[in-house]
Amino acid sequence: MNTTATEAKNLPTPWYKERWTWLLMLMPATAIVAGSITLWLAIKSFDGLVADDYYKQGLAINQTLAKANVAQDMGLVARVRFSADAMLVELSSKPGVGLPARLNVTLAHPTRGGFDQQFVLERQEGVYRAAIPEALGTAHWKVLLEDESRSWRLSGTAFLPTETEIRINAADLKPVD
Q1: Which whole-number Å values give the CA distances from 50 to 55, 111, 113, 144, in the listed order?
Q2: Which residues contact residue 137 at a Cβ distance below 8 angstroms, ignoring those fewer than 6 apart?
Q3: In whole angstroms, what separates CA 36 from the centre of its chain?
Q4: Residue-wise pLDDT tens digits, 37-74
Q5: Which run of H or E residues covers position 57?
Q6: Cβ neighbours of residue 57 under 8 Å, at least 6 residues apart?
Q7: Higher pLDDT, 4 or 3
Q8: What is the pLDDT of residues 135-144, one digit of tens each?
């Protein structure tokens, strides 16, 4: 039995030779590949920005603002200088307000909590000093100054290592009622 050319054209072609089959499978296949890449990126690059206790941190903002108000009432002004291996803080206040013997300083990294550094600065000849490691890295660091009892707080920012001196004035803070 011989088939003619017209009969051969009418025979159904297998599914894998049809263009529309591959075109219809392209979108779901693309979604699977993109989803797999997204999952891999999410697992590999955990940024750690979300805190587990965000509600408690939200409630603690009032305590932080109260500490800033105490610093305002004391008239605190700090000049912070960074060198290659040390940090110097000159702290001044209103007349009659005593300054602490030690300062707690926190250098908070803007995105990575694991890079945060804490120092205790000793007062020597009116200036607070501490050695700092060279591994601070380039970042827009948040600088927090507190006394030992943590009754007041000054905060500012420094772009290290470019910015070697910053001034933090409690009077520059917006008043909180």
Answers
A1: 11, 10, 10, 21
A2: 115, 160
A3: 27
A4: 999 998 888 666 666 777 887 777 877 888 888 888 89
A5: helix 54-59
A6: 51
A7: 4
A8: 677 888 899 9
